[in-house]
Write a structure and sequence with these properties.
Blueprint (H helix, E strand, L loop, with lengths): L1 E5 L5 H12 L3 E2 L9 H6 L2 H7 L1 H20 L6 E3 L2 H13 L5 H15 L12 E6 L2 H11 L10 H17 L5 E6 L9 H19 L2
Parallel strand pairs: 1-3, 1-4, 2-3, 4-5
Protein name: Deoxyadenosine/deoxycytidine kinase
InterPro entries: DCK/DGK, Deoxyribonucleoside_kinase, DNK_dom, P-loop_NTPase
Keywords: ATP-binding, Kinase, Nucleotide-binding, Transferase
């Protein structure tokens, strides 16, 4: 099982699609287009956020749908997950630090996450074999968010939120993520969506890393 981790807008879904086609495997995409809370999270005022608790509800929604994908993915070989369940904690932590998720809500969230990550008898494992982590400059992140054109993501008031998320993402990956081996792809260097040479090189790097892992 392969999972792709990255900041919002880095290109996870595009790489997941390419990788699924390359490996002939199923792809489990992050629940975005059918997510009833995500547009509310992005467009709500601070007063509405405090009253209706959209950040907490959004984290619960993502946690639930991601855990369902993990259970489906682990019954077959060679599946690709668009974002990992481990990253959900980072998003929850940032929103807690911003005062959008309360201490009690975060405590409840962490308890639920820990429970989900405990090994279940009917599942061989829940940890991925490889995390492909997309890293890059904040300018590239903003450019890609603008290019994909989801209306509720484009408000200028969200730029500070994106910057806060981006500023700690690499540190989270380097110091907190321990579930699997990691292959880093720099999105400033590789444009695997629009450049065929970059696409070939990225897929080749991933294929070689998977072969290395299988050989251990």
């Amino acid at each position: 099982m392969i999972t792709i981790g990255a900041m919002i807008g880095a290109g996870k879904s595009s790489l997941a699609k390419l990788l699924g086609e390359h490996l002939g495997s199923e792809v489990f995409y992050e629940s975005v287009d059918d997510n009833p809370i995500l547009p509310l999270f992005y467009t709500a005022t601070e007063e509405e956020i405090q009253k209706k608790r959209y950040p907490f509800l959004l984290q619960l929604y993502f946690l639930n749908t991601r855990f369902r994908s993990i259970k489906k993915a682990l019954v077959h070989e060679n599946n690709v997950l668009d974002r990992s369940i481990y990253e959900d904690w980072y998003f929850a932590k940032v929103n807690k630090e911003l005062g959008r998720i309360s201490d009690l809500e975060f405590q409840m969230y962490e308890g639920l996450l820990e429970n989900m990550l405990e090994e279940l008898e009917e599942l061989p494992k829940k940890a991925p074999d490889l995390m492909i982590y997309l890293t890059g400059s904040f300018e590239t992140i903003l450019k890609r968010i603008q290019e994909r054109g989801r209306g509720y993501e484009l408000d200028e008031s969200l730029v500070d939120y994106y910057r806060i998320l981006w500023s700690g993402y690499d540190q989270w990956m380097e110091t907190q993520y321990k579930a699997s081996e990691v292959l880093k792809i720099n999105i400033d260097q590789y444009d695997y969506v629009n450049n065929m040479d970059d696409q070939i090189e990225v897929l080749d790097r991933i294929t070689k890393k998977l072969a290395e892992i299988r050989g251990k």
